[in-house]
Write a sequence for this structure.
């Protein structure tokens, strides 16, 4: 798949429409704000961020990009939703975080421009929004330096994830707008693992993100049946 076609314009439109709400912790993006400290500390279990070159793929409004920059990383966030990138840029400016930059660029295009440039690549909650997730995995692998870390998070595909991530989150609890996720784009851990192997990314750890709707608390678990996170490391040449 070539660089310009691995994008679903209706996906970008969904995020652009909500762009002004990225930094409202009570908006549709509330789940991302709530899980952000959890994923930041999970990443830091594997690598420090201070002074590293970090790429955040599908950065949206920059919730994770900015948090990693606050930890001392030099961060580039990329996305294809223009409005979200403007919001991200403005927020960084307002909060005085200087070591984060944003660019409208596909991950595949960046991989041809600047291969093996990053110590850490994060690609969170993005793979389930693209037509060809394997092309994104491959590009992330090209962008990271040998020995560097690539972190993915996405949604599993099974009856439970349909029930929790779509019926529960979009229709019962109203955590996310209806239509945020399409079941057929969800990715089984085995499919992601295969794609990582093919791209010379060694999988070190898989974790699940669990949620209790009564207490409204998220926690990192060993159950990857709905939302899951994968830590991978690029093989040395
Ligand atoms: N990674 C961020 C945002 C997740 S929301 C976070 O976890 O906080 C999914 C993001 O993927 C949106 O910002 C959307 O614009 C972006 N996206 C969807 N398709 C994309 C594509 N083909 N290339 C780059 N970004 C894409």
């Amino acid at each position: 798949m070539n660089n310009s076609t691995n994008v679903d314009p209706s996906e970008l439109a969904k995020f652009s429409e909500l762009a002004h709400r990225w930094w409202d912790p009570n908006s549709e993006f509330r789940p991302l704000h709530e899980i952000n400290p959890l994923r930041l500390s999970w990443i830091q279990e594997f690598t420090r961020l201070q002074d590293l070159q970090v790429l955040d793929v599908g950065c949206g409004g920059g919730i994770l990009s900015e948090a990693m920059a606050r930890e001392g990383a030099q961060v580039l966030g990329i996305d294809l939703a223009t409005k979200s990138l403007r919001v991200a840029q403005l927020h960084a400016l307002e909060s005085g975080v200087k070591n984060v930059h944003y660019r409208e660029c596909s991950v595949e295009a960046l991989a041809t421009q600047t291969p093996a440039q990053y110590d850490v690549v994060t690609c969170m909650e993005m793979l389930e929004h693209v037509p060809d997730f394997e092309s994104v995995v491959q590009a992330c692998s090209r962008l990271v330096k040998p020995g560097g870390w690539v972190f993915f998070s996405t949604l599993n595909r099974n009856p439970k994830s349909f029930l929790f991530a779509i019926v529960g989150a979009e229709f019962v609890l109203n955590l996310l707008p209806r239509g945020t996720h399409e079941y057929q784009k969800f990715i089984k851990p085995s499919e992601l693992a295969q794609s990582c192997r093919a791209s010379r990314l060694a999988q070190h750890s898989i974790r699940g993100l669990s949620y209790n709707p009564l207490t409204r608390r998220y926690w990192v678990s060993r159950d990857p049946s709905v939302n899951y996170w994968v830590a991978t490391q690029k093989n040395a040449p």
